[in-house]
Structure formats: structure tokens, C-alpha cells
């Protein structure tokens, strides 16, 4: 079975490796290998690799002296790494335990192994976990030059959205005023602030806001980040007409908060609206909802319609980048 690798011309190898390393995507269990004029960089999560890079299956050698989980199991298990925590997703408890034991016995830099025990649920957007090895569920995740501390049992966080977050971050200009309406531990507002923006993040999860504030300190941007615990609808009065940029990453129910987004928007504002819809019309429902909330007070221009990832059979997680002009 091949290993997912980014394939690039050798002359682009170091720049690509650095880019992947900044996103914490390089799989250090395998050697980076040159063949046929290309470089093959093993990656931990192919779904998080930027779309402009070519992911292929390749058979790089296991890094010399390293024992991998497959050495114990006889086949490559599926798992995801966040810092020194490994996540598996197995319905069979016995199989999950076998994989966890093989991961712990390997040379991977692992402190804790978790198995997903539920879907994301509730207003706090958290899931249940089975701890298969280790004790602490707190981790430090590194992404495009930023560090995020978080506890997987207390907050929602998806490393698979790293590429999408970076796409948005690169649009941010210095001196912007950016508001993340469902901010979590700060994966949007912290890198926004590192680009010079003044940022506000709200979330109803008190633990998430505590981590957001800690992460702002950790990344040296606490002076430009305000974290507020509470329902954004109750906070909006204090920031009416304030935002140059709004992030609405609450798929399934972001449409319920569009009236609040319009209240927060300044005279010109870019809105990043995330949605989950059927493949037959992935963008239409979101665009219609935005126009219904914003027009005629604002002219609405959809600048980007982008599929972020597949969510379920025939359903896509999508984003609309929309410019609102008063």
C-alpha cells in the first residue's frame, strides 16, 4: 500500500517541503525521496494539502531506524495526528486498541491516542473520545507559523481545515477589522492578527475563549485580539457597523445568524460564509440566504464559490466569499 506524498519537481522541493512543514503536514516516519526528476514528500493528511499541490501514492522508505505502526500490524492503519496526539476512527473497539498499541510501540512522537466515540454535537460543538493510550487530551497544534493550544475533549477543532483557513488568512490586509462570529480557539483570528488586523472572536464555549486568549498570547498578538464568551447576537450591539471582514464558520446553521452579520458589517465588508449542502446545489441556498438578509441595504457580490471538502455522500462543505457594499 502506497504512502500519500506530494510530488514536485526537484527544484521546487525545498520550498514545498517548508510550506508543508509550516502546516505540520510532513510525515516524519518516511524519508523524502527523489525519483525521476521529482521529489516525493510524505504527508500525514492528504486532504489538508493545498489544492495546487499534486498528491500521489508512492513507496518511500521508512526513515532508517524508525518502527512504524504498520510494522506491528502488518498493514497501514488509518490515523490522524495533531501535534503529539494521534486520532483513530474505529467502530470496532478491539481493532482500535490494536492500532493504539501499535502506534505506541512505534517510533512516532506520540503522547496520547484517542478514538472518536461520537460525532460533533451540541451547542459547544464537541465530541466524545475514548482514550486508548496516555492521559492528557490537551495538545499544541502548529499551522502555518502559528501555535494553537487546545483540549480536544473541550473544544471543536479540525486540522483538516488548515488549508482553507490559510486561503482566507492570505486575503487579510494590515489594519483591517476582522470579526469571527464562532471563533473557537482562534485559528482564524490569531493569524489574522499576525498580518496586522485588529480582531474580535466570540464563542459560547467558555473554554474555547480561554484558549483563544492563551493562543493570542502564545503567538504575540494579544494586543490585537479580543476574545468574548457569549452569543454573538448579544454582543453585536457593541460592534455594530465595525467589521471589514466577517467569518461565519458554523455549517448547518450559519444562516440563522445572517441578520447579526449584517449588523456587524461596515460600509464595505467581506463575508466568509461556510455551509453544508447537497451536491446538486451547493452554493445556491447560502447565496439566497445572504441576499435575503443583506439586500437592499448592501450590494451583494459573490467573489468566490469554493468546495472546501466532501462532508458526506452527496454533501459538500462549501464557502462563499461575499463582498457587502453599503
TrEMBL record:
Keywords: Cytoplasm, Methyltransferase, S-adenosyl-L-methionine, Transferase, tRNA processing. It comes from the Archaea. SUPFAM superfamilies: S-adenosyl-L-methionine-dependent methyltransferases (SSF53335). Pfam families: TRM5-TYW2_MTfase, Trm5_N, TYW2_N_2. InterPro entries: MeTrfase_TRM5/TYW2, SAM-dependent_MTases_sf, TRM5-TYW2-like_MTfase, TRM5/TYW2-like_N, Trm5a/b_N. One of its GO terms (biological process) is tRNA N1-guanine methylation. GO terms for molecular function: tRNA methyltransferase activity. Residues 79-326 form the SAM-dependent methyltransferase TRM5/TYW2-type domain. GO terms for cellular component: cytoplasm. This is Class I SAM-dependent methyltransferase family protein.
